[in-house]
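WARN no homologs supplied; continuing
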Amino acid sequence: MAFYFNFSNVTDEQYEDKDNNCEETCDTLEHFTVPCEYILWNDIDLEAASASDVNLKQIQFKDFKIKYITQDTIANKIENLDLFSERETDLIPGKYEGGLKVWECSIDLAKFLSENSCIHSGDVVLELGCGIGLPGLLAYLYGGLVTFQDYNSEVIKYVTAPNVWLNTCVERQNSISEKCKFLCGDWQNIQEKYFSNGKDAKLYDVILTSETIYNRSNQKKLLNLMKEALKPGGVIYLASKVHYFGVGGGIADYEKLLKEDNTFDFCTVFKVTEGVERRILKLQHKKN
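OK structure emitted
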């Protein structure tokens, strides 16, 4: 039996994607969404992060060396997790959104944050589609109060939150729940439940996101959530490949959406032109 996390029943045939082209599948699954909820620190699994023989990766940024758990570390936690690596895609639309992989643009964004003093102590920060959580981890280490959001609760419980724990000194580990929140679910559900006229509306000074605009059908959801979550005067940093071949999304589509919506001014603040072209956009509310 193939592994799709413990969500709504969808047949294996709906996920056949041998050409790494998920546009048709994305359209088919548009009505499938996962529950959204804040995950309590008591529900986080720290066993793998606490093991003496844990297989950690490390990456050095300007001021911090970040440690993080690999997918192999938690392979025994989730049944048939290795089936992901046998597929010709890193995504199962509507089920698994790539949160167990370190994506290039998340490294770009984390480096940009560390080299440009983008986060200040006390900033309230939201990382959307966090996965491993490198940008959010840097924001946390710089003194930010960070909400980590991912589509899949399993990613939060087994990877993201344990990574926060790994990068916190022993004396401060008991205070993680005061500095961080962990949120899972579909962006539209999250917006409707927590942000539309809710307590979290217009809460965040900084919103971070990387590799999240590959699917055109989800771009509007992302933008709507950003509009509800960002404080007046806040800033968004969005890192993405210019184009996602076989999937259809990318920078041009999102810039078009931003222009049509007319809520944010935006500009490119970082780009890589060698190999697969990648950029970081900076978004801010339009001035009246």
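Strands lie at 37-38, 56-60, 65-69, 124-128, 145-150, 180-184, 204-210, 230-241, 264-272, 278-285.
OK
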